[in-house]
Design a protein that fits this description.
alpha/beta, about 40% helix, four-stranded antiparallel β-sheet, elongated, TIM Barrel, 2 domains, Aldehyde Oxidoreductase, domain 3
Length: about 280
C-alpha cells in the first residue's frame, strides 16, 4: 500500500505496545469468549480520509475472519457524520484493536485534512504544496502518505534522496559555492540549496544548484527571487507558512511551497467506532 512501509511490523509493534505483558485485561474480563460485535467507524468532523487500510490491518491481525466493508477510500473528502467502514468479528479482538486503529486513522486523517485545506488555499496559483521532514520519528512514511491523500506532493523522503544544503552546511563548508561544488562533485543529481538572501541566488546557481529554497522571505522578496532565477531551476518558498499567508506566498510565482506544520501540527480528526450487538 505504501512503498517501503512494513505494515505487518507496524501493526505487530503497535499492538504489542498496547497489550504489554498482560494483554487486554478489560476485554478478557468483561466480554464473553465467542461474543461477536458489529461496529461502524464514522467521522464526527468533515475530513479528508487517510489510514483506513492500516486500521483494517489491526482488526485482521487479531481476527483473521473479521468481515470489513470499506465505505469510502483514502483521499476522499467527506462531511461530518460519514460512515467510513463497517466490521463484524470477534468482540474481544475488535475492542482490543479499536484504539490502535482509531489512533492511526485520526492522526493520518488530521494530516490529510489540513493538507487539503492548504491545497485549496493555493488553487489556481500554479504552485505545488510540499511536505517536509518534520515528521514523528518512525511514522514518516505513513505521514507523508497522508499528505499525498490531502493533495500535496512529497519533498525529500529522507537524507538519502537529495542533497539539501542549508545554513549550517554553508557555514561549515565555507560558503554556498564551495558547499554546492562539493555536493556536485560527490555525484549529487538533486542539489537543493536554501538561500535566505537574494544575493545568494547567483552563487548557488553558478555552482550547480538544481533547486532553490527561498527561506523566510515575504511575498515581495519571493517575487524578486523568482524573477532573478528566471526559470533556470524550480523555486520553493519555505518557513513560517500559514493557511492565512500561503496564497500570497504562492502568488509570488514560486514553483513550490513547503509547509512543515502539515505533519508537525495537524490536529487529530474526530473519528469514533461504535459497536452494536450482532
Amino acid at each position: 500500500m505504501i512503498e517501503g512501509f512494513d505494515l505487518d511490523a507496524f501493526v505487530t509493534a503497535t499492538l504489542a505496545e498496547d497489550l504489554g505483558p498482560g494483554g487486554d485485561i478489560t476485554s478478557a474480563a468483561v466480554i464473553p469468549e465467542g461474543a461477536r460485535f458489529i461496529g461502524t467507524m464514522a467521522s464526527r468532523d468533515a475530513i479528508t480520509v487517510a489510514g483506513l487500510p492500516i486500521a483494517e490491518a489491526f482488526f485482521r491481525h487479531l481476527d483473521a475472519d473479521v468481515v470489513i466493508e470499506r465505505l469510502v477510500e483514502d483521499g476522499t473528502s467527506v462531511p461530518a457524520g460519514t460512515d467510513l467502514l463497517r466490521l463484524s468479528g470477534q468482540a474481544r479482538a475488535m475492542l482490543t484493536a479499536e484504539r490502535s486503529a482509531l489512533n492511526t486513522v485520526q492522526h493520518l486523517s488530521g494530516i490529510a485534512t489540513m493538507t487539503a485545506a492548504y491545497v485549496a488555499a493555493i488553487a489556481g496559483t500554479g504552485a505545488i504544496l510540499l511536505d517536509t521532514r518534520k515528521t514523528i520519528p518512525g511514522l514518516r512514511l505513513v505521514e507523508k502518505y497522508a499528505t499525498r491523500m490531502g493533495g500535496a506532493q512529497n519533498h525529500r523522503m529522507g537524507l538519502w534522496d537529495a542533497a539539501m544544503i542549508k545554513d549550517n552546511h554553508v557555514a561549515v563548508a565555507g560558503g554556498i559555492g564551495p558547499a554546492v561544488t562539493a555536493a556536485r562533485e560527490a555525484g549529487g543529481a538533486r542539489i537543493i540549496v536554501e538561500v535566505d538572501a537574494l544575493d545568494q541566488i547567483e552563487p548557488a546557481l553558478a555552482a550547480g544548484a538544481t533547486h532553490l529554497l527561498l527561506d523566510n522571505m515575504n511575498p515581495a522578496q519571493l517575487a524578486e527571487g523568482v524573477a532573478l532565477v528566471a526559470g533556470r531551476v524550480p523555486t520553493e518558498a519555505s518557513g513560517g507558512v500559514r493557511l492565512d499567508t500561503i496564497r500570497a506566498i504562492a502568488e509570488s510565482g514560486v514553483t513550490y511551497v513547503s509547509v512543515g506544520r502539515l505533519t508537525q501540527s495537524a490536529p487529530a480528526a474526530d473519528i469514533g467506532l461504535d459497536f452494536a450487538a450482532a
